[in-house]
Automatic annotation (TrEMBL):
One of its GO terms (molecular function) is transaminase activity. Signal peptide: none annotated. Keywords: Aminotransferase, Pyridoxal phosphate, Transferase. It holds the Pfam family Aminotran_1_2. Its cofactor is pyridoxal 5'-phosphate. Coiled coil: none annotated. It comes from the Bacteria. This is Aminotransferase. CDD domains: AAT_like (cd00609). Residues 31-380 form the Aminotransferase class I/classII large domain.
Length: 388
Protein backbone atom coordinates (compact mmCIF):
# COMPACT_ATOMS: atom_id res chain seq x y z
CA UNK A 1 0.00 0.00 0.00
CA UNK A 2 1.33 3.45 -0.93
CA UNK A 3 0.76 5.81 1.97
CA UNK A 4 0.49 9.58 1.75
CA UNK A 5 3.82 11.38 1.65
CA UNK A 6 2.89 13.38 4.75
CA UNK A 7 3.12 10.24 6.87
CA UNK A 8 6.82 9.98 6.11
CA UNK A 9 7.38 13.59 7.16
CA UNK A 10 6.52 13.01 10.82
CA UNK A 11 7.88 10.66 13.45
CA UNK A 12 5.91 8.67 16.04
CA UNK A 13 5.81 10.08 19.57
CA UNK A 14 8.85 8.88 21.53
CA UNK A 15 7.05 9.82 24.75
CA UNK A 16 4.21 7.42 24.03
CA UNK A 17 6.61 4.78 22.72
CA UNK A 18 8.74 4.75 25.88
CA UNK A 19 5.66 4.81 28.11
CA UNK A 20 4.17 1.88 26.16
CA UNK A 21 7.39 -0.11 26.47
CA UNK A 22 7.48 0.51 30.22
CA UNK A 23 3.85 -0.58 30.57
CA UNK A 24 4.55 -3.74 28.56
CA UNK A 25 7.46 -4.58 30.85
CA UNK A 26 5.24 -4.02 33.89
CA UNK A 27 2.62 -6.31 32.35
CA UNK A 28 5.31 -8.99 32.13
CA UNK A 29 5.89 -8.68 35.85
CA UNK A 30 9.00 -6.48 35.69
CA UNK A 31 9.31 -3.80 38.38
CA UNK A 32 9.68 -0.62 36.31
CA UNK A 33 10.06 2.87 37.77
CA UNK A 34 8.54 5.16 35.17
CA UNK A 35 9.44 8.82 34.87
CA UNK A 36 8.12 8.94 31.32
CA UNK A 37 4.50 10.06 31.31
CA UNK A 38 3.47 13.70 31.47
CA UNK A 39 0.43 12.64 33.43
CA UNK A 40 -0.47 13.37 37.07
CA UNK A 41 -0.80 10.15 39.05
CA UNK A 42 -3.76 11.49 41.05
CA UNK A 43 -7.35 10.48 40.41
CA UNK A 44 -9.63 13.14 38.95
CA UNK A 45 -11.18 15.06 41.88
CA UNK A 46 -14.46 13.54 42.99
CA UNK A 47 -16.65 16.62 42.46
CA UNK A 48 -15.61 16.69 38.80
CA UNK A 49 -16.44 13.02 38.33
CA UNK A 50 -19.78 13.51 40.08
CA UNK A 51 -20.70 16.38 37.76
CA UNK A 52 -20.02 14.19 34.73
CA UNK A 53 -21.99 11.34 36.29
CA UNK A 54 -24.92 13.66 36.97
CA UNK A 55 -24.85 14.84 33.36
CA UNK A 56 -24.69 11.24 32.14
CA UNK A 57 -27.68 10.27 34.26
CA UNK A 58 -29.53 13.35 33.01
CA UNK A 59 -29.21 12.14 29.44
CA UNK A 60 -26.39 14.43 28.28
CA UNK A 61 -25.35 11.70 25.86
CA UNK A 62 -26.31 13.20 22.49
CA UNK A 63 -24.48 15.22 19.89
CA UNK A 64 -23.66 18.74 20.99
CA UNK A 65 -22.43 21.88 19.23
CA UNK A 66 -19.13 21.23 17.46
CA UNK A 67 -17.50 24.17 19.25
CA UNK A 68 -18.54 22.91 22.68
CA UNK A 69 -21.35 23.19 25.20
CA UNK A 70 -22.34 26.88 25.54
CA UNK A 71 -22.08 26.74 29.33
CA UNK A 72 -18.53 25.44 29.16
CA UNK A 73 -17.46 27.96 26.54
CA UNK A 74 -18.85 30.71 28.76
CA UNK A 75 -17.09 29.31 31.83
CA UNK A 76 -13.77 29.20 29.94
CA UNK A 77 -14.22 32.77 28.72
CA UNK A 78 -14.99 33.89 32.27
CA UNK A 79 -11.90 32.07 33.57
CA UNK A 80 -9.72 33.77 30.95
CA UNK A 81 -11.11 37.20 31.91
CA UNK A 82 -10.84 36.69 35.66
CA UNK A 83 -7.56 34.80 35.96
CA UNK A 84 -5.62 35.81 32.84
CA UNK A 85 -6.92 39.33 32.13
CA UNK A 86 -7.90 38.30 28.59
CA UNK A 87 -11.11 39.88 27.31
CA UNK A 88 -12.67 36.89 25.55
CA UNK A 89 -16.32 35.93 25.29
CA UNK A 90 -17.81 32.49 24.59
CA UNK A 91 -17.71 33.09 20.82
CA UNK A 92 -13.90 33.35 21.09
CA UNK A 93 -13.59 29.82 22.53
CA UNK A 94 -13.72 26.33 21.02
CA UNK A 95 -13.70 23.19 23.18
CA UNK A 96 -11.44 20.50 21.72
CA UNK A 97 -10.46 16.88 22.31
CA UNK A 98 -7.57 17.77 24.58
CA UNK A 99 -4.99 20.53 24.43
CA UNK A 100 -3.14 18.71 21.66
CA UNK A 101 -6.23 18.80 19.46
CA UNK A 102 -6.63 22.54 20.04
CA UNK A 103 -3.17 23.11 18.58
CA UNK A 104 -3.76 20.74 15.70
CA UNK A 105 -6.97 22.60 14.80
CA UNK A 106 -5.04 25.86 14.99
CA UNK A 107 -2.32 24.72 12.60
CA UNK A 108 -4.87 23.49 10.06
CA UNK A 109 -6.91 26.69 10.30
CA UNK A 110 -3.97 29.07 10.16
CA UNK A 111 -1.09 27.74 8.08
CA UNK A 112 -0.64 27.74 4.33
CA UNK A 113 2.13 25.71 2.66
CA UNK A 114 5.47 27.39 3.26
CA UNK A 115 4.38 29.45 6.27
CA UNK A 116 7.09 29.48 8.95
CA UNK A 117 6.47 28.78 12.62
CA UNK A 118 9.11 29.70 15.20
CA UNK A 119 9.57 27.02 17.86
CA UNK A 120 12.10 27.42 20.70
CA UNK A 121 13.99 24.23 21.56
CA UNK A 122 13.68 22.25 23.76
CA UNK A 123 10.05 21.98 22.67
CA UNK A 124 7.07 19.74 23.29
CA UNK A 125 7.65 17.06 20.71
CA UNK A 126 4.34 17.46 18.84
CA UNK A 127 4.79 21.12 17.89
CA UNK A 128 6.99 20.67 14.81
CA UNK A 129 5.07 17.57 13.69
CA UNK A 130 1.77 19.47 13.73
CA UNK A 131 3.31 22.33 11.77
CA UNK A 132 4.67 19.90 9.18
CA UNK A 133 1.35 18.06 8.82
CA UNK A 134 -0.36 21.39 8.15
CA UNK A 135 2.16 22.22 5.40
CA UNK A 136 4.11 24.75 7.44
CA UNK A 137 7.85 24.94 8.08
CA UNK A 138 9.10 24.57 11.66
CA UNK A 139 11.89 27.05 12.43
CA UNK A 140 13.71 25.68 15.46
CA UNK A 141 15.60 28.13 17.67
CA UNK A 142 17.97 26.51 20.16
CA UNK A 143 18.21 27.68 23.75
CA UNK A 144 20.60 26.59 26.50
CA UNK A 145 20.56 25.78 30.19
CA UNK A 146 22.58 28.95 30.75
CA UNK A 147 19.68 31.02 29.38
CA UNK A 148 17.18 28.98 31.40
CA UNK A 149 16.08 27.32 28.15
CA UNK A 150 14.31 30.56 27.19
CA UNK A 151 14.33 32.27 23.83
CA UNK A 152 15.53 35.88 23.93
CA UNK A 153 13.86 38.81 22.17
CA UNK A 154 16.90 39.12 19.89
CA UNK A 155 16.65 35.43 18.94
CA UNK A 156 12.96 35.81 18.17
CA UNK A 157 13.56 38.95 16.12
CA UNK A 158 16.41 37.36 14.16
CA UNK A 159 14.30 34.29 13.35
CA UNK A 160 11.49 36.31 11.80
CA UNK A 161 11.25 36.47 8.01
CA UNK A 162 8.53 37.61 5.61
CA UNK A 163 7.22 34.03 5.76
CA UNK A 164 6.88 33.93 9.56
CA UNK A 165 3.25 33.35 10.55
CA UNK A 166 3.37 32.13 14.12
CA UNK A 167 5.52 31.93 17.25
CA UNK A 168 4.85 29.09 19.72
CA UNK A 169 5.31 30.07 23.37
CA UNK A 170 5.09 27.44 26.13
CA UNK A 171 5.40 28.62 29.73
CA UNK A 172 5.61 26.78 32.07
CA UNK A 173 7.45 24.50 29.71
CA UNK A 174 7.38 20.86 28.79
CA UNK A 175 10.10 19.47 28.90
CA UNK A 176 12.25 21.91 30.90
CA UNK A 177 9.89 23.26 33.56
CA UNK A 178 11.16 26.79 32.93
CA UNK A 179 8.83 29.78 33.37
CA UNK A 180 9.19 33.12 31.59
CA UNK A 181 9.03 36.00 34.07
CA UNK A 182 6.49 38.78 33.44
CA UNK A 183 9.30 41.07 32.24
CA UNK A 184 10.53 38.39 29.83
CA UNK A 185 7.00 37.95 28.51
CA UNK A 186 6.67 41.69 27.97
CA UNK A 187 9.97 41.76 26.07
CA UNK A 188 8.84 38.95 23.75
CA UNK A 189 5.47 40.63 23.32
CA UNK A 190 7.16 43.78 22.00
CA UNK A 191 8.85 41.72 19.28
CA UNK A 192 5.56 40.04 18.35
CA UNK A 193 4.03 43.48 17.76
CA UNK A 194 7.14 44.90 16.08
CA UNK A 195 7.34 41.97 13.63
CA UNK A 196 3.55 41.75 13.23
CA UNK A 197 3.36 37.98 13.79
CA UNK A 198 0.92 35.80 15.67
CA UNK A 199 1.74 33.99 18.92
CA UNK A 200 0.07 30.92 20.36
CA UNK A 201 0.59 30.62 24.10
CA UNK A 202 0.36 27.01 25.31
CA UNK A 203 -0.65 27.46 28.95
CA UNK A 204 -1.53 23.89 29.90
CA UNK A 205 0.80 24.03 32.96
CA UNK A 206 -0.13 27.55 34.09
CA UNK A 207 -1.37 26.45 37.53
CA UNK A 208 1.72 24.37 38.36
CA UNK A 209 4.21 26.95 39.64
CA UNK A 210 6.86 26.93 42.41
CA UNK A 211 8.86 29.40 44.49
CA UNK A 212 6.64 32.41 43.78
CA UNK A 213 7.05 32.06 40.00
CA UNK A 214 4.42 34.11 38.18
CA UNK A 215 2.51 33.26 35.03
CA UNK A 216 1.66 36.18 32.78
CA UNK A 217 -0.38 35.41 29.70
CA UNK A 218 1.23 37.25 26.80
CA UNK A 219 -2.10 38.52 25.48
CA UNK A 220 -2.59 40.50 28.69
CA UNK A 221 0.45 42.70 28.02
CA UNK A 222 -1.33 45.13 25.70
CA UNK A 223 -4.20 45.43 23.28
CA UNK A 224 -1.78 45.22 20.35
CA UNK A 225 -0.42 41.89 21.58
CA UNK A 226 -3.89 40.62 22.48
CA UNK A 227 -5.00 41.02 18.83
CA UNK A 228 -2.13 38.75 17.78
CA UNK A 229 -2.54 36.15 20.56
CA UNK A 230 -4.12 32.69 20.57
CA UNK A 231 -4.44 30.70 23.81
CA UNK A 232 -4.22 26.90 24.01
CA UNK A 233 -5.08 25.25 27.30
CA UNK A 234 -6.96 22.34 28.83
CA UNK A 235 -7.92 20.42 31.94
CA UNK A 236 -5.47 17.51 31.81
CA UNK A 237 -2.61 18.69 34.00
CA UNK A 238 -4.13 21.00 36.63
CA UNK A 239 -7.18 18.81 37.30
CA UNK A 240 -5.67 15.38 36.54
CA UNK A 241 -8.12 14.88 33.67
CA UNK A 242 -5.73 13.51 31.04
CA UNK A 243 -8.10 10.77 29.87
CA UNK A 244 -11.10 13.07 29.65
CA UNK A 245 -9.67 14.74 26.52
CA UNK A 246 -10.95 18.26 27.07
CA UNK A 247 -8.93 21.23 25.89
CA UNK A 248 -9.70 24.58 24.38
CA UNK A 249 -8.50 27.26 22.00
CA UNK A 250 -9.26 30.96 22.46
CA UNK A 251 -8.64 33.74 20.00
CA UNK A 252 -9.99 35.89 17.21
CA UNK A 253 -13.61 35.01 16.37
CA UNK A 254 -12.80 34.35 12.69
CA UNK A 255 -10.06 31.90 13.67
CA UNK A 256 -12.27 30.11 16.20
CA UNK A 257 -15.03 29.78 13.62
CA UNK A 258 -12.53 28.29 11.17
CA UNK A 259 -11.32 25.82 13.81
CA UNK A 260 -14.95 24.93 14.54
CA UNK A 261 -15.57 24.23 10.86
CA UNK A 262 -12.55 21.93 10.74
CA UNK A 263 -13.63 20.18 13.93
CA UNK A 264 -17.17 19.73 12.61
CA UNK A 265 -15.72 17.60 9.79
CA UNK A 266 -13.29 15.62 11.96
CA UNK A 267 -14.29 14.82 15.54
CA UNK A 268 -17.47 16.90 15.89
CA UNK A 269 -18.14 17.76 19.54
CA UNK A 270 -16.13 16.67 22.56
CA UNK A 271 -17.80 13.97 24.70
CA UNK A 272 -20.94 15.76 25.90
CA UNK A 273 -21.25 14.60 29.50
CA UNK A 274 -17.49 14.96 30.09
CA UNK A 275 -17.82 18.68 29.37
CA UNK A 276 -20.00 19.04 32.45
CA UNK A 277 -17.12 17.73 34.51
CA UNK A 278 -14.97 20.49 33.02
CA UNK A 279 -17.59 23.07 33.98
CA UNK A 280 -17.43 21.82 37.56
CA UNK A 281 -13.63 22.01 37.47
CA UNK A 282 -13.75 25.72 36.60
CA UNK A 283 -16.71 26.79 38.72
CA UNK A 284 -15.89 24.90 41.94
CA UNK A 285 -13.30 25.85 44.60
CA UNK A 286 -9.74 25.22 43.47
CA UNK A 287 -8.58 23.38 46.60
CA UNK A 288 -7.90 20.21 44.59
CA UNK A 289 -5.44 22.07 42.38
CA UNK A 290 -3.55 23.39 45.39
CA UNK A 291 -3.44 19.92 47.00
CA UNK A 292 -1.90 18.39 43.90
CA UNK A 293 0.51 21.33 43.56
CA UNK A 294 1.69 20.82 47.15
CA UNK A 295 2.47 17.17 46.36
CA UNK A 296 4.34 18.13 43.17
CA UNK A 297 6.37 20.68 45.15
CA UNK A 298 7.53 18.02 47.62
CA UNK A 299 8.46 15.67 44.79
CA UNK A 300 10.33 18.42 42.99
CA UNK A 301 12.48 19.10 46.06
CA UNK A 302 13.18 15.37 46.50
CA UNK A 303 14.26 14.99 42.86
CA UNK A 304 16.48 18.06 42.84
CA UNK A 305 18.23 17.08 46.07
CA UNK A 306 19.08 13.67 44.66
CA UNK A 307 20.18 14.99 41.26
CA UNK A 308 22.59 17.44 42.90
CA UNK A 309 24.33 14.51 44.57
CA UNK A 310 24.94 12.59 41.35
CA UNK A 311 27.94 12.91 39.10
CA UNK A 312 27.83 13.45 35.33
CA UNK A 313 24.31 14.88 35.25
CA UNK A 314 22.87 18.32 36.01
CA UNK A 315 19.76 20.40 35.42
CA UNK A 316 18.49 23.92 35.97
CA UNK A 317 15.89 24.24 38.71
CA UNK A 318 12.39 24.06 37.19
CA UNK A 319 9.92 26.75 38.24
CA UNK A 320 6.81 25.07 36.85
CA UNK A 321 5.22 21.90 35.43
CA UNK A 322 6.48 18.55 36.78
CA UNK A 323 9.65 17.79 34.83
CA UNK A 324 13.41 18.01 35.20
CA UNK A 325 15.53 18.19 32.06
CA UNK A 326 18.84 16.50 32.81
CA UNK A 327 21.99 17.22 30.88
CA UNK A 328 23.89 13.96 30.25
CA UNK A 329 26.75 15.34 28.14
CA UNK A 330 29.40 14.18 30.61
CA UNK A 331 28.26 10.57 30.27
CA UNK A 332 29.43 10.48 26.66
CA UNK A 333 26.10 9.03 25.58
CA UNK A 334 23.36 10.55 23.48
CA UNK A 335 19.84 10.54 24.85
CA UNK A 336 18.28 7.56 23.06
CA UNK A 337 21.17 5.24 23.88
CA UNK A 338 21.15 6.45 27.50
CA UNK A 339 17.40 5.92 27.97
CA UNK A 340 17.38 2.49 26.31
CA UNK A 341 20.29 1.32 28.48
CA UNK A 342 18.69 2.74 31.63
CA UNK A 343 15.40 0.97 30.93
CA UNK A 344 16.90 -2.35 29.92
CA UNK A 345 19.51 -2.63 32.67
CA UNK A 346 17.92 -0.86 35.62
CA UNK A 347 14.23 -0.72 34.68
CA UNK A 348 13.88 3.06 34.79
CA UNK A 349 11.85 4.74 32.04
CA UNK A 350 12.87 8.25 30.96
CA UNK A 351 12.31 10.19 27.74
CA UNK A 352 15.24 10.90 25.37
CA UNK A 353 15.87 14.59 24.88
CA UNK A 354 16.18 14.10 21.13
CA UNK A 355 12.37 13.96 21.10
CA UNK A 356 12.37 17.54 22.39
CA UNK A 357 15.14 18.81 20.16
CA UNK A 358 18.11 18.31 22.50
CA UNK A 359 20.03 15.03 22.21
CA UNK A 360 22.29 15.87 25.17
CA UNK A 361 19.46 15.70 27.70
CA UNK A 362 16.75 13.41 29.06
CA UNK A 363 13.42 14.28 30.64
CA UNK A 364 12.22 12.89 33.95
CA UNK A 365 8.63 13.42 35.04
CA UNK A 366 7.99 13.55 38.78
CA UNK A 367 4.24 13.11 38.33
CA UNK A 368 4.52 9.92 40.33
CA UNK A 369 4.63 8.99 44.03
CA UNK A 370 7.62 9.63 46.28
CA UNK A 371 8.48 5.94 46.89
CA UNK A 372 8.72 5.40 43.12
CA UNK A 373 10.81 8.55 42.79
CA UNK A 374 13.24 7.44 45.49
CA UNK A 375 13.56 3.92 44.11
CA UNK A 376 13.94 5.13 40.55
CA UNK A 377 16.61 7.66 41.46
CA UNK A 378 18.48 4.98 43.44
CA UNK A 379 18.53 2.94 40.24
CA UNK A 380 19.60 5.93 38.15
CA UNK A 381 22.51 6.55 40.52
CA UNK A 382 23.55 2.90 40.34
CA UNK A 383 23.32 3.06 36.55
CA UNK A 384 25.62 6.07 36.45
CA UNK A 385 28.11 4.39 38.80
CA UNK A 386 28.06 1.11 36.89
CA UNK A 387 28.34 2.45 33.36
CA UNK A 388 30.49 5.50 33.96
Amino acid sequence: MKLAARVGQVTPSLTLAIAAKAKAMKADGIDVCSFSAGEPDFDTPNHIKMAAEKALNAGKTKYGPAAGEPQLREAIAQKLKTHNNLDYSAKNVIVTNGGKHSLFNLMLALLDPGDEVIIPAPFWLSYPEMVTLAGGIPVIISTTAESGYKITPDQLRSACTPKTKLFILNSPSNPTGMVYSPDEIRALASVVVEQDILVVSDEIYEKILYNNAQHLSIGAVSEEVFKRTIISNGFAKAYSMTGWRIGYLAGNEELIQAASTIQSHSTSNVCTFAQYGAIAALESPQDCVQEMLAAFALRRVAVLERIRGMSCISCPEPEGAFYVFLNITKTGMKSLKFCNALLESHQVAAIPGIAFGDDDCIRLSYATDLPTIEKGLDRLEKFLQQYL
